[in-house]
Amino acid sequence: MWRQEKINSLFKRLASSFFAKEKTGSIVTITRIVSSKDLKSSKIFISIFPESREKEIFSLLKGRAGELRRYIGSQIKMKFLPFFEIVIDEEEKARQKIDKILGPVAKG
Fold first, then answer.
1. Distance from the CA of 53 to the CA of which of 25, 34, 64, 88 falls in 20 to 30 A?
2. Buried b (16+ CB within 10 A) or exposed e, 67-95
3. How do the domains of the chain map onto residue ranges?
4. Does domain 2-107 have CATH number 3.30.1220.10?
5. Which residues touch 54 (CB under 8 Å, ≥6 apart)?
6. What is the pLDDT of residues 35-83, one digit of tens each?
């Protein structure tokens, strides 16, 4: 389990570096990465701000998944490099909505 966490952390750092080079005009945050136990696939969960451009930016980034895989492969040496799936982090969106609703209540 520790090895997988370390690899996910490395993937997150490299994917962040890759996405930072994309000139989207939006803020793309990698919230988490979940890899399969055999490390043959990884899901990259992202959050995009502003939300009004989410579909456009998501489509752009999803189309670059192959380039992301090549970039990560050029940075690290692994026997098998996973295939990366980029998805919107719906849990993070729900958390943000709850924070927005509870914000005035929490501040008291």
1. 34
2. ebbeebeeeeeeeebbebebebbeeeeee
3. 2-107
4. no
5. 48, 88
6. 999 999 999 999 999 989 999 999 999 999 999 999 999 999 988 899 9
